[in-house]
Specification:
With 487 residues, the chain is an alpha/beta fold. Helix 3 links the parallel strand 2 and strand 3.
Length: 487
């Protein structure tokens, strides 16, 4: 039985379900371990049906016990089996010790791992660490992980790739790069954000045949982001029904950013899109895209009339942090309208923090660090905690960019499921802010506009990468594809 695909759980919740299964449902821990091994071995055979050899790395806890049970199943299936222990098997806890003893009774042999000497062959089973790892990987284990990653063999991880934090998705010094991860009971939130995408490969979840009602009774820690459907437009609709987005930015030398954001707002379906930018290049930005209404604005007073006409404000793309930028930022925040705060507007906000309910903040880790007064490394070490701090301090809807983008509004956390490394190029964030602003202008809530914007932004990049490849993907490629996906 598989668990629901959209719900994510923290490690404490998974442990509680496991405890309930043992204490209340009467399923012995040893039986759960056997079920885990069976699920993993079946996935191993399904993924690599031609393989007849396995190399199993076993650690010191129950994850190691899973590994010994997998090795036993492999022996019984006439596989060539090599097992390397990174901890004394005789010192294993109860169920794991029993799994080791069963492996020996089946005729198995265990060897100590020796870096540079031990032979790795077939499919490697990573059973070194489970979901409990919270400290940096020690030297002996690091050597084993390095050997696994350098082996060229296919790798399947038990529950979570060893070295990856199951809650935060951060790497604790080093981690196994798995081709497949078979996780148990429920999907762990750390498998979908931070550095996890580099290490997990394909993720399979087995419920271990625990009654689905047990997990269903527990509210998920987070939800995987899913696409929202936009309603069909009325046949008598006109542009006034789909909002007026005002984008503010494009300081000297940064015209491209505001142009990208403006085009994304248009392609999202906004009725009208205006740009307030420096007077010296206001006549250039809409060349080739005459639907953009561009205004040269050099002071906050001149911006006021445009702010009054707009239904949604997007500020930040190419804004800069000079006197002009600060004056534009102050004028935009003086009016109580829904707004999207991006790029340098976030940096200006960090200098004079405010809290509002009707805005969307879109920081990447560096901007989030400035908003929270910490380092980017601290943000990456626990993205969920950083997101909660952003929302607590600044209000509204907050998204934290990066692989596995995080979104929160009120009590619900969403984890992005779309996007690829081809998006690591300039202008992608500008497209996202314009897209979200355009969706907001069409009547979506802050939460809905952010969720749909993040999903479709990544989906557009994924479809383009599938067609042309990741390298050379440009932010300017996305708006036309966004239009197709929203329709």
């Amino acid at each position: 039985m598989q668990t629901p695909a959209s719900k994510l759980y923290c490690t404490a919740q998974i442990r509680e379900v496991e405890r309930y299964a043992i204490d209340e449902l009467g399923i012995p821990g040893r039986e759960l371990m056997r079920r885990a091994a069976y699920a993993l071995f079946e996935q191993l055979r399904q993924s690599w049906p031609e393989q007849q050899a396995v190399t199993v790395f076993c650690g010191a806890g129950n994850n190691g016990g899973d590994g010994y049970d997998v090795a036993t199943l492999a022996l019984q299936a006439n596989f060539q089996v090599s097992v390397y222990a990174l901890a004394d098997p005789d010192g294993l806890p109860g169920d794991a010790l029993s799994a080791y003893q069963d492996f020996l009774q089946a005729g198995g042999r265990v060897s100590d791992f020796e870096a540079g000497q031990s032979k790795l062959q077939g499919v490697i089973v990573d059973a070194l660490f489970g979901i409990g790892l919270s400290r940096e990987v020690g030297q002996d284990y690091a050597l084993a992980i390095a050997a696994i990653n350098a082996s060229g063999c296919p790798v399947i991880a038990v529950d979570v790739p060893s070295g990856l934090h199951a809650y935060t998705g951060s790497v604790l010094g080093c981690a196994v790069k798995a081709d497949v991860t078979v996780t148990f009971i429920g999907l762990k939130c750390g498998l979908f954000t931070g550095e996890a995408a580099e290490y997990c490969g394909k993720i399979i979840c087995s419920s271990l045949d625990i009654d689905a009602a047990v997990l269903a009774a527990m509210p998920p820690f987070a939800l995987l982001l899913e696409k929202l459907d936009l309603p069909r437009r009325a046949r008598v609709a006109h542009k006034g029904r789909f909002g007026h987005v005002l984008l503010i930015g494009g300081n000297l030398g940064y015209t491209g950013a505001i142009r990208l954001a403006g085009e994304a707002a248009l392609r999202s379906g906004a009725g009208l899109v205006s740009i307030a930018t420096r007077a010296s290049h206001s006549g250039l930005i809409n060349i080739g895209r005459s639907e953009l209404m561009c205004h040269g604005v050099e002071c906050g007073e001149a911006l006021h009339a445009l702010l009054e006409k707009a239904s949604v404000i997007v500020i930040g793309p190419g804004l800069g942090q000079d006197d002009w930028a600060r004056e534009m930022f102050g004028a935009a925040l003086a009016i109580d309208k829904q707004c999207v705060i991006d790029a340098d507007a976030l940096n200006l906000l960090s200098l004079q923090p405010k809290r509002r309910a009707n805005w969307i903040l879109t920081p990447h880790p560096g901007e989030a660090a400035r908003l929270l007064g910490c380092s980017a490394g601290q943000i990456s070490a626990d993205r969920f905690a950083a997101l909660a701090d952003l929302h607590s301090q600044y209000g509204g809807t907050c998204l934290l960019k990066g692989a596995g983008t995080l979104i929160t509004c009120d009590d619900t956390v969403y984890v992005g499921t779309t996007g690829n490394p081809g998006m690591a190029s300039g202008g992608m964030g500008d497209v996202l802010s314009g897209l979200i602003g355009g969706l907001l202008a069409q009547g979506l809530s802050l939460d809905e506009a952010t969720r749909l914007g993040v999903y479709v932004h990544g989906e557009a990049a994924d479809s383009l990468a599938l067609e042309f490849g990741e390298r050379g993907l440009l932010a300017g490629d996305l708006p036309a594809r966004i239009r197709k996906l929203l329709n």
